Amino acid sequence: MKITEVRVILTCPTRNYLFVKILTDEGVYGVGEGTLNGSELAVATAIEHAAELLIGRDPMRTEDLWQLVYNWTYWRAGPVYMAALGALDLALWDIKGKVAGLPVYELLGGKSREGVLTYGHAGGDEPAKVADSVRSFLDRGYKVVRAQQGGYGGSGMASHEPSPRRNVPGAAYFDPASYLAETPKLFEHLRAELGDEVELLHDVHEQLTPIQAAWLAKQLEPYRLFYLEDPLPPEHYESFRVVREASTTSLAIGEVFTSRWDCIRLFNEQLIDYIRIKPIHVGGITEARKIMVFAEPAQIRSAFHGAGDIGPVGQAASLHLQISIPNFGVQEWIDFGTEGAARLREVTPNPCEWRDGYAYPHETPGLGMDIDEDAAAKYPYRKAYMPIVRRTDGTMHRY
Ligand code: MG
Protein backbone atom coordinates (compact mmCIF):
# COMPACT_ATOMS: atom_id res chain seq x y z
CA MET A 1 0.00 0.00 0.00
CA LYS A 2 1.27 3.47 -0.85
CA ILE A 3 0.24 6.99 0.13
CA THR A 4 -0.99 8.83 -2.95
CA GLU A 5 -2.30 12.14 -1.59
CA VAL A 6 -2.52 14.26 1.57
CA ARG A 7 -5.48 16.65 1.62
CA VAL A 8 -5.78 19.57 4.02
CA ILE A 9 -9.39 20.47 4.91
CA LEU A 10 -9.67 23.86 6.60
CA THR A 11 -13.25 24.71 7.57
CA CYS A 12 -15.27 26.97 9.84
CA PRO A 13 -18.70 25.41 10.46
CA THR A 14 -18.80 26.94 13.96
CA ARG A 15 -15.16 27.88 14.57
CA ASN A 16 -12.05 26.97 12.61
CA TYR A 17 -11.09 23.31 12.37
CA LEU A 18 -8.22 21.82 10.40
CA PHE A 19 -8.62 18.22 9.22
CA VAL A 20 -6.52 16.03 6.92
CA LYS A 21 -7.26 13.06 4.74
CA ILE A 22 -4.46 10.68 3.68
CA LEU A 23 -5.38 8.69 0.58
CA THR A 24 -3.78 5.44 -0.60
CA ASP A 25 -3.53 3.48 -3.84
CA GLU A 26 -5.76 0.76 -2.35
CA GLY A 27 -8.73 3.04 -1.74
CA VAL A 28 -8.33 3.03 2.06
CA TYR A 29 -8.00 6.52 3.52
CA GLY A 30 -7.39 7.96 6.95
CA VAL A 31 -8.62 11.16 8.63
CA GLY A 32 -6.78 13.30 11.14
CA GLU A 33 -6.97 16.71 12.80
CA GLY A 34 -4.41 19.43 13.52
CA THR A 35 -6.55 22.36 14.68
CA LEU A 36 -4.31 24.90 16.43
CA ASN A 37 -6.41 27.84 17.53
CA GLY A 38 -5.23 31.00 15.76
CA SER A 39 -2.48 29.23 13.79
CA GLU A 40 -4.52 27.07 11.41
CA LEU A 41 -3.01 28.56 8.25
CA ALA A 42 0.53 27.92 9.50
CA VAL A 43 -0.32 24.29 10.31
CA ALA A 44 -1.97 23.85 6.90
CA THR A 45 1.20 25.08 5.18
CA ALA A 46 3.40 22.79 7.29
CA ILE A 47 1.21 19.78 6.40
CA GLU A 48 1.26 20.62 2.70
CA HIS A 49 5.04 20.87 2.81
CA ALA A 50 5.47 17.59 4.78
CA ALA A 51 3.05 15.81 2.44
CA GLU A 52 5.73 15.61 -0.25
CA LEU A 53 7.78 13.39 2.10
CA LEU A 54 4.91 10.93 2.47
CA ILE A 55 3.79 10.40 -1.11
CA GLY A 56 4.73 6.89 -2.30
CA ARG A 57 5.49 5.59 1.22
CA ASP A 58 3.84 2.71 3.10
CA PRO A 59 1.23 4.24 5.48
CA MET A 60 1.49 1.26 7.86
CA ARG A 61 4.97 2.40 8.99
CA THR A 62 3.52 4.77 11.55
CA GLU A 63 6.63 5.01 13.75
CA ASP A 64 9.10 5.49 10.92
CA LEU A 65 6.92 8.13 9.25
CA TRP A 66 6.59 9.91 12.60
CA GLN A 67 10.38 10.05 12.91
CA LEU A 68 10.69 11.16 9.29
CA VAL A 69 8.26 14.07 9.63
CA TYR A 70 9.58 15.03 13.09
CA ASN A 71 13.16 15.28 11.87
CA TRP A 72 12.60 16.70 8.38
CA THR A 73 12.75 20.34 9.33
CA TYR A 74 15.96 20.26 11.39
CA TRP A 75 14.06 23.00 13.33
CA ARG A 76 11.97 20.25 14.84
CA ALA A 77 9.02 20.49 17.24
CA GLY A 78 7.12 23.62 18.28
CA PRO A 79 3.32 23.94 18.29
CA VAL A 80 2.85 24.38 14.51
CA TYR A 81 4.96 21.40 13.42
CA MET A 82 3.71 19.15 16.21
CA ALA A 83 0.07 19.91 15.30
CA ALA A 84 0.90 19.19 11.64
CA LEU A 85 2.58 15.94 12.66
CA GLY A 86 -0.36 15.16 14.94
CA ALA A 87 -2.83 15.49 12.06
CA LEU A 88 -0.78 13.16 9.85
CA ASP A 89 -0.18 10.64 12.63
CA LEU A 90 -3.91 10.41 13.45
CA ALA A 91 -4.71 9.73 9.80
CA LEU A 92 -2.04 7.00 9.65
CA TRP A 93 -3.47 5.29 12.75
CA ASP A 94 -6.92 5.53 11.16
CA ILE A 95 -5.58 3.72 8.07
CA LYS A 96 -3.84 1.10 10.22
CA GLY A 97 -7.08 0.38 12.07
CA LYS A 98 -9.07 0.15 8.86
CA VAL A 99 -6.54 -2.28 7.36
CA ALA A 100 -6.56 -4.38 10.55
CA GLY A 101 -10.36 -4.20 10.77
CA LEU A 102 -10.06 -2.98 14.37
CA PRO A 103 -10.78 0.24 16.26
CA VAL A 104 -7.56 2.10 17.11
CA TYR A 105 -7.90 1.40 20.85
CA GLU A 106 -7.51 -2.34 20.12
CA LEU A 107 -4.15 -1.59 18.49
CA LEU A 108 -3.09 0.31 21.63
CA GLY A 109 -3.69 -2.60 24.00
CA GLY A 110 -7.47 -2.81 24.08
CA LYS A 111 -9.92 -1.36 26.61
CA SER A 112 -8.74 -0.84 30.18
CA ARG A 113 -12.19 0.49 31.08
CA GLU A 114 -15.70 0.59 29.65
CA GLY A 115 -15.95 4.34 29.15
CA VAL A 116 -13.89 7.53 29.45
CA LEU A 117 -14.85 9.67 32.47
CA THR A 118 -15.46 13.30 31.43
CA TYR A 119 -15.90 16.70 33.06
CA GLY A 120 -17.96 19.68 31.96
CA HIS A 121 -17.59 23.44 32.53
CA ALA A 122 -19.89 25.08 35.09
CA GLY A 123 -19.80 28.78 35.89
CA GLY A 124 -21.62 31.82 37.18
CA ASP A 125 -21.15 35.33 38.54
CA GLU A 126 -21.61 34.42 42.21
CA PRO A 127 -21.34 31.27 44.35
CA ALA A 128 -25.09 30.50 44.33
CA LYS A 129 -25.20 30.68 40.53
CA VAL A 130 -22.07 28.52 40.21
CA ALA A 131 -23.72 25.94 42.50
CA ASP A 132 -26.84 25.95 40.29
CA SER A 133 -24.68 25.52 37.21
CA VAL A 134 -22.77 22.59 38.79
CA ARG A 135 -26.13 20.99 39.70
CA SER A 136 -27.26 21.26 36.07
CA PHE A 137 -24.18 19.29 35.00
CA LEU A 138 -24.75 16.67 37.71
CA ASP A 139 -28.37 16.36 36.56
CA ARG A 140 -27.13 15.60 33.03
CA GLY A 141 -24.97 12.78 34.35
CA TYR A 142 -21.57 14.40 34.82
CA LYS A 143 -19.56 12.97 37.73
CA VAL A 144 -16.81 15.61 37.59
CA VAL A 145 -17.42 19.34 37.08
CA ARG A 146 -15.11 22.31 36.63
CA ALA A 147 -16.35 25.33 38.63
CA GLN A 148 -15.41 28.90 37.66
CA GLN A 149 -16.75 32.19 38.94
CA GLY A 150 -16.93 35.41 36.95
CA GLY A 151 -15.84 34.35 33.49
CA TYR A 152 -12.59 33.24 31.97
CA GLY A 153 -10.19 34.49 34.59
CA GLY A 154 -12.30 33.82 37.64
CA SER A 155 -13.87 36.22 40.11
CA GLY A 156 -11.09 38.70 39.50
CA MET A 157 -12.69 39.59 36.19
CA ALA A 158 -14.09 43.08 36.48
CA SER A 159 -17.84 42.78 36.06
CA HIS A 160 -18.21 46.38 34.87
CA GLU A 161 -16.52 45.54 31.57
CA PRO A 162 -19.30 44.72 29.07
CA SER A 163 -18.82 41.34 27.32
CA PRO A 164 -15.10 41.63 27.84
CA ARG A 165 -14.05 38.30 26.35
CA ARG A 166 -15.59 38.88 22.98
CA ASN A 167 -14.51 42.47 22.63
CA VAL A 168 -11.30 41.98 20.61
CA PRO A 169 -9.13 44.05 20.54
CA GLY A 170 -10.53 44.85 23.98
CA ALA A 171 -9.81 42.57 26.88
CA ALA A 172 -11.03 40.77 29.95
CA TYR A 173 -9.62 42.14 33.19
CA PHE A 174 -8.09 40.06 35.96
CA ASP A 175 -7.52 41.22 39.53
CA PRO A 176 -5.41 38.69 41.49
CA ALA A 177 -6.37 40.13 44.89
CA SER A 178 -10.12 39.68 44.44
CA TYR A 179 -9.63 36.34 42.69
CA LEU A 180 -7.58 35.01 45.62
CA ALA A 181 -10.09 36.34 48.14
CA GLU A 182 -13.18 34.95 46.42
CA THR A 183 -12.10 31.56 45.08
CA PRO A 184 -11.80 29.79 48.49
CA LYS A 185 -15.23 31.24 49.41
CA LEU A 186 -16.67 29.81 46.21
CA PHE A 187 -15.50 26.30 47.06
CA GLU A 188 -16.61 26.62 50.68
CA HIS A 189 -20.08 27.43 49.33
CA LEU A 190 -20.02 24.59 46.78
CA ARG A 191 -19.07 21.99 49.40
CA ALA A 192 -21.74 23.30 51.78
CA GLU A 193 -24.38 23.16 49.03
CA LEU A 194 -23.33 20.05 47.12
CA GLY A 195 -21.69 17.85 49.76
CA ASP A 196 -18.30 16.18 49.83
CA GLU A 197 -18.78 13.49 47.22
CA VAL A 198 -19.11 15.46 43.98
CA GLU A 199 -15.81 15.81 42.15
CA LEU A 200 -14.95 19.48 41.56
CA LEU A 201 -12.01 21.05 39.81
CA HIS A 202 -10.88 24.58 39.07
CA ASP A 203 -8.77 26.25 36.36
CA VAL A 204 -6.48 29.17 37.28
CA HIS A 205 -5.55 29.81 33.63
CA GLU A 206 -1.88 30.38 34.52
CA GLN A 207 -2.64 33.75 36.10
CA LEU A 208 -0.83 33.57 39.44
CA THR A 209 2.72 33.91 40.69
CA PRO A 210 4.29 30.87 42.42
CA ILE A 211 3.63 32.17 45.92
CA GLN A 212 0.03 33.20 45.07
CA ALA A 213 -0.61 29.77 43.56
CA ALA A 214 0.87 28.08 46.64
CA TRP A 215 -1.39 30.15 48.89
CA LEU A 216 -4.49 29.30 46.84
CA ALA A 217 -3.68 25.58 46.68
CA LYS A 218 -3.31 25.58 50.47
CA GLN A 219 -6.59 27.47 51.02
CA LEU A 220 -8.43 25.02 48.76
CA GLU A 221 -7.16 21.91 50.55
CA PRO A 222 -10.23 21.50 52.79
CA TYR A 223 -12.48 21.33 49.71
CA ARG A 224 -10.57 18.38 48.16
CA LEU A 225 -10.41 19.38 44.51
CA PHE A 226 -10.16 16.69 41.85
CA TYR A 227 -7.35 18.99 40.73
CA LEU A 228 -6.27 22.62 40.47
CA GLU A 229 -5.53 23.30 36.81
CA ASP A 230 -2.87 25.58 35.35
CA PRO A 231 -2.00 27.27 38.66
CA LEU A 232 1.12 28.75 37.00
CA PRO A 233 2.61 29.43 33.61
CA PRO A 234 4.35 26.15 32.82
CA GLU A 235 7.54 27.49 31.30
CA HIS A 236 9.44 27.68 34.58
CA TYR A 237 8.89 24.15 35.82
CA GLU A 238 10.71 24.60 39.12
CA SER A 239 8.03 27.04 40.30
CA PHE A 240 5.74 24.00 40.65
CA ARG A 241 7.88 22.85 43.55
CA VAL A 242 6.76 25.93 45.51
CA VAL A 243 3.10 24.94 45.10
CA ARG A 244 3.81 21.27 45.66
CA GLU A 245 5.61 21.82 48.94
CA ALA A 246 2.88 24.13 50.25
CA SER A 247 -0.16 21.90 49.79
CA THR A 248 -1.70 18.52 49.04
CA THR A 249 -4.11 19.88 46.41
CA SER A 250 -3.73 17.81 43.22
CA LEU A 251 -2.25 19.74 40.29
CA ALA A 252 -2.84 19.49 36.54
CA ILE A 253 -0.98 21.21 33.71
CA GLY A 254 0.03 20.68 30.11
CA GLU A 255 -2.66 21.88 27.70
CA VAL A 256 -0.09 24.07 25.90
CA PHE A 257 2.62 21.40 25.93
CA THR A 258 3.67 20.15 22.51
CA SER A 259 6.18 17.38 23.22
CA ARG A 260 7.68 14.97 25.72
CA TRP A 261 10.37 17.54 26.52
CA ASP A 262 7.81 19.82 28.13
CA CYS A 263 6.67 17.00 30.42
CA ILE A 264 9.66 15.01 31.44
CA ARG A 265 11.08 17.09 34.30
CA LEU A 266 7.64 17.55 35.86
CA PHE A 267 7.18 13.77 35.64
CA ASN A 268 10.60 12.85 36.99
CA GLU A 269 10.11 15.02 40.06
CA GLN A 270 6.41 14.15 40.46
CA LEU A 271 5.54 17.85 40.56
CA ILE A 272 2.04 17.33 39.09
CA ASP A 273 -0.73 14.73 39.33
CA TYR A 274 -2.46 15.06 35.95
CA ILE A 275 -1.08 15.83 32.49
CA ARG A 276 -3.30 17.78 30.07
CA ILE A 277 -1.68 17.01 26.73
CA LYS A 278 -3.78 15.56 23.90
CA PRO A 279 -2.71 13.69 20.78
CA ILE A 280 -3.38 16.39 18.20
CA HIS A 281 -0.94 18.91 19.69
CA VAL A 282 1.97 16.61 20.63
CA GLY A 283 2.50 14.86 17.29
CA GLY A 284 -0.42 12.45 17.43
CA ILE A 285 -1.27 9.15 19.05
CA THR A 286 2.28 7.85 18.58
CA GLU A 287 3.82 10.51 20.83
CA ALA A 288 0.90 10.96 23.26
CA ARG A 289 1.04 7.24 24.04
CA LYS A 290 4.76 7.46 24.78
CA ILE A 291 4.23 10.48 27.04
CA MET A 292 1.62 8.53 29.02
CA VAL A 293 4.10 5.64 29.35
CA PHE A 294 6.64 8.11 30.83
CA ALA A 295 3.92 9.35 33.19
CA GLU A 296 2.95 5.91 34.47
CA PRO A 297 5.85 5.19 36.88
CA ALA A 298 5.50 8.76 38.25
CA GLN A 299 1.84 7.97 39.11
CA ILE A 300 0.67 10.80 36.88
CA ARG A 301 -2.65 10.35 35.13
CA SER A 302 -4.14 11.81 31.97
CA ALA A 303 -6.60 14.71 31.94
CA PHE A 304 -6.59 15.46 28.24
CA HIS A 305 -7.47 18.97 27.13
CA GLY A 306 -10.77 18.96 25.27
CA ALA A 307 -11.97 22.53 24.82
CA GLY A 308 -14.06 23.56 21.81
CA ASP A 309 -11.01 24.18 19.66
CA ILE A 310 -10.24 20.46 19.60
CA GLY A 311 -12.65 19.13 16.99
CA PRO A 312 -14.46 15.78 16.81
CA VAL A 313 -11.56 13.89 15.16
CA GLY A 314 -9.02 15.10 17.74
CA GLN A 315 -11.55 14.27 20.45
CA ALA A 316 -11.93 10.73 19.07
CA ALA A 317 -8.14 10.21 19.11
CA SER A 318 -8.07 11.26 22.79
CA LEU A 319 -10.79 8.72 23.61
CA HIS A 320 -9.10 5.83 21.77
CA LEU A 321 -5.88 6.46 23.72
CA GLN A 322 -7.47 7.11 27.09
CA ILE A 323 -9.76 4.09 27.05
CA SER A 324 -6.65 1.93 26.65
CA ILE A 325 -3.95 3.38 28.93
CA PRO A 326 -3.71 2.25 32.57
CA ASN A 327 -3.04 5.76 33.95
CA PHE A 328 -6.21 7.49 32.78
CA GLY A 329 -7.73 10.26 34.93
CA VAL A 330 -10.43 12.31 33.20
CA GLN A 331 -11.24 13.90 29.82
CA GLU A 332 -12.37 17.52 29.43
CA TRP A 333 -15.60 17.41 27.45
CA ILE A 334 -17.40 19.68 24.99
CA ASP A 335 -20.42 18.05 23.43
CA PHE A 336 -20.52 20.27 20.30
CA GLY A 337 -24.28 20.05 20.89
CA THR A 338 -25.01 23.74 21.12
CA GLU A 339 -24.68 26.64 18.72
CA GLY A 340 -23.93 25.60 15.17
CA ALA A 341 -24.02 21.89 15.97
CA ALA A 342 -25.93 21.07 12.78
CA ARG A 343 -23.21 22.65 10.61
CA LEU A 344 -20.45 20.78 12.43
CA ARG A 345 -22.48 17.55 12.06
CA GLU A 346 -22.49 18.08 8.29
CA VAL A 347 -18.68 18.21 8.27
CA THR A 348 -18.03 15.44 10.82
CA PRO A 349 -21.24 13.39 10.78
CA ASN A 350 -20.37 10.87 13.51
CA PRO A 351 -18.98 12.44 16.70
CA CYS A 352 -18.22 10.09 19.56
CA GLU A 353 -21.02 9.13 21.89
CA TRP A 354 -21.38 10.65 25.37
CA ARG A 355 -23.83 9.34 27.96
CA ASP A 356 -24.18 9.64 31.71
CA GLY A 357 -20.80 11.29 32.26
CA TYR A 358 -18.73 8.96 30.08
CA ALA A 359 -17.54 9.21 26.46
CA TYR A 360 -16.99 6.29 24.12
CA PRO A 361 -14.76 5.88 21.06
CA HIS A 362 -16.43 4.23 18.10
CA GLU A 363 -16.03 0.46 17.80
CA THR A 364 -15.74 0.55 14.00
CA PRO A 365 -12.29 0.12 12.37
CA GLY A 366 -9.80 2.99 12.70
CA LEU A 367 -10.78 6.14 14.56
CA GLY A 368 -14.37 5.62 13.40
CA MET A 369 -14.58 9.21 12.12
CA ASP A 370 -15.11 10.77 8.70
CA ILE A 371 -14.96 14.21 7.06
CA ASP A 372 -17.50 15.37 4.46
CA GLU A 373 -15.31 17.52 2.21
CA ASP A 374 -18.24 19.04 0.30
CA ALA A 375 -19.83 20.18 3.55
CA ALA A 376 -16.46 21.51 4.80
CA ALA A 377 -16.10 23.58 1.62
CA LYS A 378 -19.39 25.35 2.37
CA TYR A 379 -17.85 26.92 5.49
CA PRO A 380 -14.57 28.65 4.61
CA TYR A 381 -11.87 29.60 7.11
CA ARG A 382 -12.39 32.85 8.99
CA LYS A 383 -9.56 34.72 10.70
CA ALA A 384 -10.02 34.68 14.50
CA TYR A 385 -8.01 35.51 17.61
CA MET A 386 -7.81 34.21 21.17
CA PRO A 387 -9.21 36.38 24.01
CA ILE A 388 -6.89 38.86 25.70
CA VAL A 389 -6.57 39.34 29.46
CA ARG A 390 -5.26 42.48 31.10
CA ARG A 391 -4.71 43.56 34.71
CA THR A 392 -7.14 46.16 36.01
CA ASP A 393 -4.60 48.93 35.33
CA GLY A 394 -4.43 47.85 31.70
CA THR A 395 -1.20 45.83 31.84
CA MET A 396 -1.18 42.99 29.34
CA HIS A 397 -1.22 39.64 31.09
CA ARG A 398 -1.23 36.05 29.99
CA TYR A 399 -4.62 34.35 30.19
MG1 MG B 1 -6.61 25.25 31.39
General form: globular
The helix content, as a percent range, equals 25-40%
CATH architecture field of the largest domain? Alpha-Beta Barrel
- Would you give the CATH topology of the largest domain? TIM Barrel
Strand content: 15-25%
In this entry the ligands are: magnesium ion
Would you tell me the structural class of the helices and strands?
alpha/beta
CATH H-level name of the largest domain... which superfamily? Enolase-like C-terminal domain
Oligomerization state: single chain
Counted up, domains total 2
Largest sheet: 8 strands, parallel, barrel
Q: What can you tell me about this protein's structure?
A:
The chain is an alpha/beta fold and 399 residues long. It contains 13 helices and 16 strands. The chain has two domains: 100 residues, Enolase-like, domain 1 (2-Layer Sandwich), CATH 3.30.390; 259 residues, Enolase-like C-terminal domain (TIM Barrel). The protein has an eight-stranded parallel beta barrel. A three-stranded antiparallel sheet has the order 1-2-3. A three-stranded mixed sheet has the order 6-15-16, with no helix packed on it. Helix 5 packs across helix 6 and helix 7 packs parallel to helix 8. The radius of gyration is 21 Å and the shape is globular. The chain starts with a strand and ends with a strand. Magnesium ion (MG) binds next to loops.
